[in-house]
Design brief:
Elements lengths: L26 H17 L19 H5 L3 E5 L3 H19 L7 E5 L2 H8 L7 H18 L3 E4 L8 H7 L7 H11 L4 E5 L2 H5 L1 H11 L2 E3 L3 H13 L8 H16 L4 E4 L17 E3 H13 L6
Parallel strand pairs: 1-2, 1-3, 4-5, 4-6, 6-7
Helix pairs in contact: 3-12, 7-9, 7-12, 10-11
Amino acid sequence: MIRSDHCKQYSHPLARHTPPARSLLPLSVHVLLLALVLTLVVSGCVAPASAPSPQDTPVILHPQDQKMKTIGMIGGISWVSSAEYYRMMNHMVQDEYGEQNSAHILLYSIEFGEFSKQERLADEGDWEGLTMIMVDAAERLERGGADCIIICSNTMHSTIPAIEAAVDIPIISIIDETGKRVREKNITTVGLLGTKKTMSAEFYKEELREEFGLVVLVPDMADQEIVNNVIFDELCVDYINPASKEEYKRIISNLIDEGAEGIILGCTEIPLLIRQEDVDVPIFDTTRIHAEAAVRYALNHTPA
């Protein structure tokens, strides 16, 4: 501690009096030196002795953490199915590693209000704007440290080419994974339910045809409107309507009559409404298929 000559020294009455030591430097010089040291510390030129360097602080990882990749989710489209993804993937990791264990997940949740208004319009919507939102979401996940990306929506897989051009991490395709699962069942003709965009545009059906040799059947235009409206007006707001379930079962029955050997639930909300016990042929729950593929990749069981 720096003391000046003006500071009083405490002296016990019985102690021998010793004159206070005088500083070799004037007080003004001490003050200047102290100010210089503080300036260097604040500027980062000199680190305080007591401040540990980040390199000195060990990062302790559980052995499972070291081998588990981080899944980047583009979610919120809708939040209802994103919650299903999150629940499923954590249960799958728990089944693999035991209780208390969970998946490494980064979630970017898109605000679905205006987004959904454009998406439900199919080809009449603002797809340039929607694609920009999707690319931005993917870039944020990559910057955040994701090792792969899953798009938690069948319809928005139509934006994969733009996303692949913007990021360097793999995108696990729901279409590709579903096509593999259909072929494993030795099925060649499938019915496809989804949003109007998924059913009417070519991006989904074309990949199933060209990559997996599948014949893809879709409902007629009137039934496509019913399927689309139920998705956006009910399922995406977490409302399960028994009357809509019956309509979906009727539409599925029509597809089976036309030759469908299996039904692809090509919207991540539809499995909330339709279960295997509701249908006489195999159904393909794209949400679960996609979640399983993401966890397999994260646990290093399969390449993306």
